[in-house]
Every structure is written in structure tokens, then in C-alpha cells.
TrEMBL record:
This is Ig-like domain-containing protein. Residues 136-150 have a biased composition (Low complexity). Keywords: Membrane, Signal, Transmembrane, Transmembrane helix. The chain crosses the membrane at residues 174-193. Residues 37-150 form the Ig-like domain. Residues 1-19 form the signal peptide. Residues 136-155 are annotated as: Disordered.
Length: 199
């Protein structure tokens, strides 16, 4: 009887020792769309070359930056050909390294110092998505395209409640194998103890 109690207690101790710690996931703030911008305009350029995080090419067109809150900013870039890029900027000061890694896995880009982009000092995360914006009304000798359609964001979330970054990391394969092993050992110990105690 003593061996059964010791075996059961050992199994419980192993299971509780391998239990995963609580981990919470950060919620992404909501961003409006460039088709319906909100916030305070902090910069606006009708033409010129502009930077878009993650795009090292030359970006010629118009660019408007909207401050949404102290931690969120939205950049709306429209190339001369009508291809637009909406970039959502999120100040990463309140995020843990694990949360930043989850965001990076989902396509967010880390900008080490926002001050170089005209934002507050510190690390920022950016997420860009394409949208169709009106092309510039400049005309050349070969074209008379006056595209005045409204822009649509293609592929950006407009959920006002935000989005969950992803599933919280609750363990790894070693812990799963360990728990499975404890279960198998417990079953074997139970069968052996039963066999020993039978007359």
C-alpha cells in the first residue's frame, strides 16, 4: 500500500512540476483605413520620394501621416501610379520581447528608432498593407487618365476591437513527451502494483 501511495504522489509531483506557466497575448490596437483616415495629420507631402518600412525601393508619390494616439500612427503613401501602401506604426515600449517576436512572426517589421522616421524615440513595429488610391492627376502627352475613384484597403483588418497577436506559447515538444512518458510510467506502475497485490 505504501508503494502505491508513493507512486501516485510521485506522478502528481511530476505532472505539476511540468505544468506550463500562464502566458497572455497582447492585443493589436485598431487602425483606421487610408480610405477613411482619422487622427491628427502630422506630415503631408503631395509629391516626392518617401520611405516605406520594409520597402527599400524608390517610393515616389504623396504621403500623409496621421497620429492616432501617443503609441499609434498611420502612414498613407500613394505612388504616382495609384498603388498605395498603408503602414500602421505601433510604439513597442509596452511590449515584451515575446510579444514582439509573435508580431514579427505575423509580418510586423521592427524599426529600432522611430525618431529617425519623425516619431517618438524608441522601438516601433510597423505593418504595411496595399490599398488602391487615386493616381496623381498629373498628365503627360501619352495619357489622360483622371482616376478619381476612392481608395480601398486590400487585406488590412478594420476590426474595431483589435486582433489577438496569436496563440500564447504554452510549452514545447519536450514537455509534451515528458507528460506522455509520465502517463505511460504511471500506467505501468499501476499494472505492476496490481499484479503484485493480487493473491
Amino acid at each position: 500500500m505504501k508503494t502505491q501511495i508513493i507512486t501516485v504522489l510521485t506522478a502528481f509531483l511530476l505532472v505539476f512540476a511540468m505544468a506550463a506557466p500562464d502566458v497572455s497575448a497582447q492585443t493589436v490596437p485598431s487602425f483606421p483605413t487610408c480610405a477613411n483616415p482619422q487622427g491628427t495629420v502630422t506630415a503631408s507631402y503631395s509629391e516626392g520620394d518617401h520611405g516605406v518600412p520594409g520597402n527599400t525601393g524608390t517610393n515616389t508619390g504623396s504621403d500623409t501621416v496621421f497620429e492616432l494616439s501617443g503609441d499609434t500612427t498611420m502612414q498613407c503613401f500613394c505612388a504616382d501610379n495609384g498603388d498605395g501602401t498603408q503602414t500602421n506604426w505601433w510604439h513597442a515600449a509596452s511590449l515584451t520581447d515575446e510579444e514582439v517576436q509573435i508580431l514579427k512572426n505575423q509580418g510586423w517589421i521592427v524599426v529600432p528608432n522611430g525618431e529617425l522616421w519623425g516619431l517618438a524615440e524608441g522601438e516601433w513595429l510597423t505593418f504595411s498593407s496595399p490599398y488602391a488610391c487615386p493616381a496623381s492627376n498629373k498628365s503627360d502627352n501619352n495619357s489622360s487618365d483622371n482616376n478619381n475613384s476612392s481608395g480601398d484597403v486590400l487585406g488590412a483588418s478594420t476590426d474595431p476591437g483589435g486582433s489577438v497577436l496569436g496563440l500564447a506559447s504554452t510549452g514545447n515538444i519536450a514537455m509534451i513527451y515528458g507528460l506522455a512518458g509520465v502517463g505511460v510510467l504511471s500506467l505501468l506502475a499501476g499494472f505492476l502494483l496490481r499484479k503484485i497485490s493480487l493473491p
